[in-house]
Amino acid sequence: MDLTVAIATYNGAKRLPEVLDQLQKQVGTDGIEWEVLVVDNNSNDNTAAVISDYAKQWRPDSELRYVFEQRQGQSYARSRAVQSAKSKDLIGFLDDDNLPAENWVAEAYNFGKENPKVGAYGGIIHAKLDGNAPSYFDQIKGYLTIYDRGAIPFCYKRSAKPRRIPAAPGSVIRKQAWQECVPPPEKLLIKGRDEKTMAAGEDAEVMFYIQNSKWEVWHNPKMEIWHHIPSHRLEKTYLLKLARGYGLSNHLTRVARFYQWQRPLLNFLLPFYTFRDIIKVLSYYLQYRNAIQNDVGKACEFQSKIGQLYSPYLKVYQKL
After folding, report:
1. Element (H, E) at 223
2. Residues in Cβ contact with 116 at an 8 Å cutoff, skipping those fewer than 6 apart
3. CA–CA gap between residue 312 and residue 275 (Å, rounded)
């Protein structure tokens, strides 16, 4: 098997058909042996039945499979996908609200085949909205994982400032790179999104581990997906909580950026980080205090900075 397309889902029975329909339309796959693997992350809806129905009428040049992962959390689901994948080389990851372009499978496979030193790569993520984009959309789209880093391929260098990695939705990870670099899910710093605080970052942690290794991490603009964002996720209340969670994820993903031997040194830097983040929060508030109440974009940025201040003390914050 050349490529496994892994979809982790939780109660995705209503979302998955749109994704599977798009995978049914894939073109340019002649000569590619590929499968779609749906990892049910402890759902309590009829996800299994949906996959069973689709499997009966799945395209003849591919295979649709279903596995169940009882341990809740994206990191457990993705680890199960790697373990269960029939592909010996490439694993592409889609969320259950990611719609791949009709050539996504072909472009994902071709890039991996042509660049054997690349351990992980991501592409462009567009927004698919149910209605018109709000006026503040460009200010908040990063929190919703909407990224377009250009039409030219490039390597994400570890030494670059600011240091960047591809977003997880629509990314591909070489199986060997995962097995060499990524710890078992029990040993990861981040298991998945915290429902109370919206803190996450498990995907970034995996990418940083691969970027810290001999493997290269790249941007492949020929891989495009559309992130389906329902209207309720554009409401102010949701966005403020999401932005706060984005900030709360900051410290653990910062730890993941460092090599294992460097991590103990971060304890000595905590007072510096805290002082710096206090200054950032105060400065931002003083500059935009009159706009924060009504400007959704600035309000989200302010919440993100507050979350970043709290992030080294996340366990304390979770109890508040």
Report:
1. strand 216-229
2. none
3. 12
